[in-house]
């Protein structure tokens, strides 16, 4: 059994037994850098970076993490799993303890956590109320303070499908939806996942691109303009300062030049041999735009444009003349679509009985 130390903040001091919100507690313990108490974390809207896998979400995470006021931890993946059925209401102490244990034993989210996990008793004492919103704010807020930040965020690509859910939990959360050319996103997904994940193939990459973007845009359209913002990967890497200034304005933050040198922070966190995130260790480059022309096989180019073409048109991604799909390619498309439909149906059944988390 793990020998846990007291729940501590950024200074390494145990959390005192005081009344009030978790932030009031930590402020009295001099955890925050400023003498004057900052606003509670929920008064500073949480930031959620969403988007299709391999669309630049990690790049944007490190850009925002290079801002002195913001900290975004590794991907969480657990919000929909924990709160899809009950995004509000009171959580029992037992449920909070279970969730906390699950976070610290099963998720890579805690990969940058400093010190021992909090005990359930200390964590519950730090929560201003026993709700999903308070659970997340206490967890992420503590993480942010460990990194001397006053505002927390999240970067989890699958939350492109859960913007509405997160808004119901955290009504002030701001969403940045990053979108990349379907063909480049598909190529990158195949490069990183195809050999390791049975469900990943070119049809999955293309269909997933449409599904995630459509859902995020539908949810985003129902939000006020100050809560939902879209940015193109291509614009971000071609003119990073301008795009980051726009993003900072959306967030109500001042642009900081350090955001342009995100790779320095990434090199401290990402191993040089990282299979998935090695690119973020390098300065921003335009060279990854249009890689699909040389990297995707012609039949895959045709398949992606066939599946994604309508949405590509709507987003002003120009389709290129790559020829018509042959009868053999149409048969392959049908087979991959059947595989996708079968796996999706199986996932839905497993999710309904609680054997698989939402994805």
Please provide a brief summary of the model:
The chain is an alpha/beta fold. The chain has 15 helices and 5 strands.
Key traits:
single chain; 359 residues; alpha/beta; Rossmann fold; 2 domains; 5 strands; disordered N terminus
Strands, total number:
5
- Helix run count: 15
Morphology: globular
Mean pLDDT over the full residue set: 86
Helix proportion: 40-55%
Broad structural category: alpha/beta
Uncertain regions spanning at least 5 consecutive residues = 1-41
Side-by-side strand order of the widest sheet: 2-3-1-4-5
Number of domains: 2
- Largest beta-sheet characterization: 5 strands, parallel
Structural summary, described in words:
This protein has 359 residues and is an alpha/beta fold. The protein has helices spanning 22-28, 57-65, 79-83, 93-106, 120-126, 132-146, 163-169, 182-193, 202-221, 233-238, 240-251, 262-269, 292-295, 298-314, 327-352, and strands at 47-50, 70-71, 151-155, 174-179, 228-232. It folds into two domains: 21-180 and 224-288, 3-Layer(aba) Sandwich (Rossmann fold), CATH 3.40.50; 182-223 and 291-359, no CATH class. Helices cover 47% and strands 6% of the residues. Strands 2-3-1-4-5 form a five-stranded parallel beta sheet, with helices on both faces. α2 crosses α12 (262-269), α8 (182-193) packs across α9 (202-221) and α9 (202-221) runs parallel beside α14 (298-314). The relative contact order is 0.14. Mean pLDDT is 86; it is low at 1-41.
